[in-house]
Amino acid sequence: MASIEMRNIVKQYGDGFPAVNDVSLDIADGEFMILVGPSGCGKSTLLRMIVGLEDITSGDMIIGGKRVNDLAPRDRNLSMVFQNYALYPHMTVYENIAFPLRLSKTPDEEVRRRVTEAAEVLELKDHLERKPANLSGGQRQRVAMGRAIVRQAEAFLFDEPLSNLDAKLRGQMRTEIARLQRRLGITTVYVTHDQTEAMTLGDRVCVLRKGKIQQVASPRELYEQPVNLFVAGFIGSPPMNFLPATPEGNGLRTPFGTIQLDERRAAAVRGRDLLLVGIRPEYFEDASLVDEAKRPLGSLFRARVDVTEWLGDSQFAYIPYEAPEAVTAQLRDLSRELDSEELRTQAIVSIDSTSRIREGREAEFWLDSRKVHVFDPTSGENLT
Ligand code: ATP
């Protein structure tokens, strides 16, 4: 197993904008790192440069302490698991797993030992004589991983391995990959544009935008401390609400009323003009269900509820609001970039399923203002 270090990696195709633009990233030995971002952000290109399928324009790629820029893919000893698993349909599971060992002319006895060992770990022992067509999607995925394990590769690299599957199978496979990676402890780099995969699989997540790293952090930190509007809008479903806001005393005036800020947040926004306040849907509650003791810790709003969606364990309420054109234009751009329909000028509020709020009526909401984020609308920087 090996660590992967990237130093100022650039990939330039033709004379356009660099596909990967000065990326420096350290992936520790045994770590599960996710590369995530919208289409075209450069994640596949970065993965292909790690494997050696793409030349590096400048910078250093260091695997297991060794610079590999000029090494051919076969000499890097990495194992890439593709979207379609690339299994040979005419070969049995045994021969599919054994394939890389046959290529390297490993003696039969050694092949048998390693394939049996991999099949044991992957719970494929009873399927070794089957052909891929007679396996479930999950089993095929394990065969593909088996091929990676027998080679004793330094790292696993996955390029959107689940994107061709239906939602149910995708969920199962996600759990399977997470379990295997933890069991094997092999350094893993996993590319996806799916934020659920990003949040559930990785030890750390690297968010990319237009070839540049935005933030590298644990899933929890990304969710709770996004560095900018882009990361804040990308992570979380339904997405974070962004409301126009202007400082007012120790608070922020928003279309829903004034949000009281704690001293740290108030100091960060003092003297500022127009801002965007970021509020996750679950920071709101139906005010009538909030404890007396907790009420003073947050802010109260009255608003008219447009639509409600009851989900069993919670419900969403949609609350439209007016915003200046500068803000709506920016939210429109961000939505387009994130390929999200949802960052419109309506707030999405997630409240308890027992709440009695009604569509078309006013309701009172409580907001946990200790959790809100405040963003500079021009740079997108999180000021809090
Ligand atoms: P997706 O999720 O759509 O696969 P991605 O984040 O993996 O996107 P890349 O495939 O790495 O993005 O592409 C990054 C940028 O580089 C894009 O603008 C793409 O058009 C460009 N690009 C990728 N491959 C080539 C190539 N062979 N020649 C020219 N430009 C390329």
Structure description:
Helices cover 28% and strands 29% of the residues. The strands form 5 sheets. Strands 6-7-8-3-9-10 form a 6-stranded mixed sheet, with helices on both faces. Strands 13-12-11-14-21 form a 5-stranded antiparallel sheet. A 4-stranded antiparallel sheet has the order 2-1-4-5, with helices on one face. It contains 10 helices and 21 strands. It has helices spanning 43-51, 93-103, 108-121, 137-150, 167-184, 195-201, 219-224, 229-234, 263-269, 325-338; strands at 4-11, 20-27, 32-36, 58-63, 66-67, 78-81, 155-159, 187-192, 204-209, 212-217, 241-248, 251-254, 257-260, 275-279, 284-286, 299-304, 307-310, 314-320, 346-352, 362-367, 373-375. Strand 7 (155-159), helix 5 and strand 8 (187-192) form a beta-alpha-beta unit. The structure holds adenosine-5'-triphosphate. The site of adenosine-5'-triphosphate has 11 residues, from helix 1.
Q: What is the CATH C level class of the largest domain, in words? A: Alpha Beta
- CATH-scheme architecture of the largest domain: 3-Layer(aba) Sandwich
Distance from N terminus to C terminus (CA atoms, Å) equals: 39 Å
User: What spatial order of strands do you see in the largest sheet?
Assistant: 6-7-8-3-9-10
- Tell me the radius of gyration: 25 Å
Strand percent estimate: 25-35%
CATH topology of the largest domain: Rossmann fold
Q: What is the global morphology? A: elongated
Mean pLDDT: 90
Low-pLDDT residue intervals, each spanning 5 or more residues: none
Give the helix tally: 10
